[in-house]
Each structure stands twice: as C-alpha cells, then as structure tokens.
Design goal:
This protein is of the alpha+beta class. Helix content is 38%, strand content 28%. It has four helices and nine strands, in the order βαββαβββαββαβ. Helix 1 packs across helix 2.
Length: 164
C-alpha cells in the first residue's frame, strides 16, 4: 500500500550559513559600527539570539537575517517562534527566536481533519512529529499532497518518505 509522511525539518546547515552571512553583513554595516548588534545561533537548543542597542536596531537585524534565511531555505522564517524583546544591562535589548522542528500535535490534528473532510480515499495517522498518509492509489496520495500544500500556508511542511 503506497504511503508517505508529512514532516517539517529545518536544514540546520543552510540556517547556520544564512546566520553567518547575516553576521558578516552586520559587522560591515556602517550604522552598526561601535554598537552591540549581533546575531548568534545555538544549534544545541535550536535558538537564534539577536542583540542590539534598541528595538529599532533589532528590526534592522531581522531585515538582514530573514532575507538571508529565505534565500538559503524557502519558508524557513515561518518556523521561527519569536519570543518577547528583553531589556539587558543598561539600554541594550535582546530577542530570542526559537526554531520549531517537526509538526506539533495541534497542526497534525488539523492536517488529519482536512484530509478526512476532503473525503479522499486515504488514511492519515499521527506518527510522533509527522503525519503518515496511506492510500490504495498514488493519484489519491498526490491529490492529498496538493490539498495540504494549498491549505497549510503558515508553516513549512514537506511530503517525503514516499513508499510503494
């Protein structure tokens, strides 16, 4: 019976590369000279830390970082969970961006419900942080992929692990 999985994995190599590119641009920008502006990646905790002198400077850092991320991996900024801006010693600020990996339970339930409501001849089940879809025909599975890509636009989802 043909099947495939809906997953959501971040390409950490591309993400690290994008952050390095953004860090170099921040270092070389004239208006950031002599400031505390920087961007760092903590790969272990899946966390990006932005530091700057003001909220405005944090926004400028994001304007550099997000296009660099999108260039390396499409829709990668949609998987970021922006934490509130924190005041650090003096007048400095920092913000953490958590990288969400895998499909959360709420989104997985929404995907399964969309598939069932469409009355396609496939079965969907939640498998940890992925959603497995099985069907008798490949065409039904491809129709399911098209449906989910059209409906879920706020989080990057990939269809993979296709088996016959």
């Amino acid at each position: 019976m043909p099947s495939f999985d809906f997953t959501s994995e971040a390409d950490m190599v591309a993400l690290k590369n994008a952050i390095d590119v953004a860090a170099r641009q921040i270092e070389n920008r004239y208006d950031f000279k002599g400031t505390s502006a920087k961007v760092e990646l903590n790969e272990k905790d899946k966390l990006i830390t932005l530091q700057g002198d003001s909220d405005f400077q944090l926004d400028q850092i994001k304007d550099i970082l997000f296009p660099a991320m999108e260039k390396k991996e499409v829709e990668s900024t949609k998987r970021l969970d922006q934490q509130p801006v924190q005041k650090v010693s003096g007048n400095k600020v920092k913000q953490e961006l958590k990288i969400k990996l895998g499909i959360e339970t709420e989104l997985a339930k929404k995907i399964v419900k969309l598939i069932k409501d469409a009355k396609l001849k496939v079965q969907a089940s939640i498998q940890g942080d992925a959603v497995r879809v099985q069907g008798a025909k490949r065409d039904d599975l491809q129709e399911c992929i098209a449906l989910i890509r059209k409906q879920i636009t706020d989080f990057p989802i990939k269809a993979g692990n296709f088996r016959d």
